[in-house]
Amino acid sequence: MKPVHIYLVIAVLALLPWTLDSQYVFHIATMIAIMIPMALGMNLMLKIGQLSMAQPAFMGIGAYGSALLAIRLGLPPMLALCLSGILAAVIATIVGPVFLRIKGVYFVLLTYAFGQIINLVFQEWTSLFGGNNGLYGIPKFSIFDLRLTAVQHYYIFGLVFAAIAYAAMRAIERSDIGAIYQSLNENEMLSRSIGSNALAWRIAAFTISAFTAGISGGIYAFYIGFLSPDAFGFRLSVDLIVINAIGGAHSVLGPLLGAILVVPLPEVLRDARQYQLLIYGLCLMVFLIFIRKGLVSLIQRQRKSA
Amino acid sequence: MIEQIFVNGLLASLIYVIMALGFTLIFGIMRIVNFAHGEFYMMGAVVVLFLFGNLGWPFFIAAAAGGIITAALGVILERVLFRPLVGDELSGMIMSLAVGIILQSLVLISFGPAEQSMARPFSGTWSFFSAVVPWDRTVVALCAVVILAVFYLFLKYSRTGLAMQAVAQDPQTSSLMGIESGAIYLAAFGIACLLAGLAGGLMAPVYTVGPYMGELPMLKAFVVVILGGLGSIPGAVMGGLLIGLSESVLTTFLGSTAALIASFVIVLLVVITRPTGLMGRSAR
């Protein structure tokens, strides 16, 4: 299968909700569109060799930030969304220099602890974040005078952002920056000796992934209209890892395919709710044992043999 | 008041130490961060719920069975699923996530989402100075001390224990010395699961048993182990005591969530200032 064909398939999938014209299908498609930039952010972190469990926290910061700026300060949603995306990025730039000095397992643990603290703050600071009862009354998104009310609108909005995020990540991968990340990952000493500032590049990746997660969170907040802390917990980190593992983490196409495949899974298994988790775990296991490099590697292998 | 805080902290920390020891053993030897450790704790509790709660077996036999069955499960999982991934930290971590998800869902399918409780094998309290100590927690603590002592002696004097320490310190040199790493991986994983299963089994009557019961102990083991230094056994003991006692103090004065936040903040600070934990060896 040529890449062109894969994009053709994705384009057809993106148009599919209109042919089915069901609210429910649109909802799932919108969730996929929101998750794609999240998965891409995780993918960028994996590219620099760091598994970040802080992505849900940045999504939460973007979501709660957008909601509160719009509810409390009455800012136009567009402005609230941009500001909260920037807020997530700024926080990443502040904590990044400390976190990214640390590598491997300790980085995972550190970002995990950071994510838990942020989540506990969402839970405990009830007067601001609404605690476990949730935050209600988030206005609908609007672009100037155009109000996004129906799920179809959010689907298009999410899709546009997902496409931008994908194009940006792909541009990073193909540019010199991508080459620098690869060289840092493969041989940091050598890469530094020819003058690349390892820490600065890592902070840049962390900040970009936080910004993407923040915007995703904002779109999610305006779409769902209500926020609770458990949407931004450990489970979401696991989902992002699963998406990257199943899709394939060594290419940007991987998280895209992974999200399309994994996000609808719980919905498909709705009637067998208790089997959801089981099938989820088994899929992950099968991919780890038999298809280590994910779906993308299957496509590439096929391309080579053809 | 002070005695009560101290006793509460000590009772809590002993279980943390046992959980953290297993967690750190797997990491020290196989370099796998085992996200399924909480689910192994749950398996021990489920066995006790079935054998002691439903079938009426004696409590200690049921708890021992919980440990042994969990260990057997761990040995099988290690051989089939984890061994092929040794050396690949990320894949090992993801595999443990998969194992955790599957164990959780199996319990969810067979027992349902509801938390279940059982009759307590020991009841009543006794007093230590002005502190009131429940008997069931006392029994758990005594068992934990015995388990710790046996584990210590095993590591210090048995051939397998010494080999494990050698592999944890330097896998290459130890394999040159003729230590077969496969057997050590199997033993380490089995013992870690045994510890987690025993901890879960002992705690089962104290709390309720359910599919999500492993998450909090897992979280605590995580915190303890980072604090003490991943892969360090003295670190796990010290970290467990430190977290148990500080949590007891903070819970008394600030409430349990604040205590949890505080323990995470402590961990963040420790890792930032000493990236390998208090007792950890230098990063690889």
From TrEMBL, chain A:
Question: Is Transmembrane helix among the key words of this record?
Answer: yes
Molecular function (GO) terms listed?
branched-chain amino acid transmembrane transporter activity
As recorded in UniProt, coiled-coil segments are none
The transmembrane residues are 24-46, 53-72, 78-100, 105-122, 154-172, 199-223, 243-265, 277-299
Chief localization: membrane
Which cellular components does GO assign to this protein? plasma membrane
Compartments it resides in: Cell membrane
Q: Which InterPro entries match?
A: ABC_transp_permease, LivM-like
- At the top level, the lineage of the source is Bacteria
Keywords from UniProt, A to Z, are: Cell membrane, Membrane, Transmembrane, Transmembrane helix
Membrane topology for this entry?
A: Multi-pass membrane protein
PANTHER family noted in UniProt: HIGH-AFFINITY BRANCHED-CHAIN AMINO ACID TRANSPORT SYSTEM PERMEASE, HIGH-AFFINITY BRANCHED-CHAIN AMINO ACID TRANSPORT SYSTEM PERMEASE PROTEIN LIVM
Official protein name in the record: Branched-chain amino acid ABC transporter permease
Q: Which organism is it from?
A: Noviherbaspirillum sedimenti
TrEMBL record, chain B:
Tell me, in one coarse class, where this protein mainly resides: membrane
Q: Which domain of life is it from?
A: Bacteria
Q: Does the keyword tRNA-binding apply?
A: no
GO molecular-function term, one example from the UniProt record: transmembrane transporter activity
Transport listed as a keyword? yes
GO CC terms on record?
plasma membrane
Which segments cross the bilayer? 6-28, 40-73, 93-114, 135-155, 183-209, 221-243, 249-272
Localized where?
Cell membrane
- This protein's UniProt keywords: Amino-acid transport, Cell membrane, Membrane, Transmembrane, Transmembrane helix, Transport
Task: Name one process (GO BP) from the record.
Answer: amino acid transport
Its topology with respect to the membrane? Answer: Multi-pass membrane protein
PANTHER family documented for this protein: AMINO ACID ABC TRANSPORTER PERMEASE PROTEIN, BRANCHED-CHAIN AMINO ACID TRANSPORT SYSTEM PERMEASE PROTEIN LIVH
- Tell me which family the UniProt entry assigns to this protein: Belongs to the binding-protein-dependent transport system permease family. LivHM subfamily.
This chain belongs to which protein, by name? Branched-chain amino acid ABC transporter permease
In which organism is this protein found? Answer: Noviherbaspirillum sedimenti
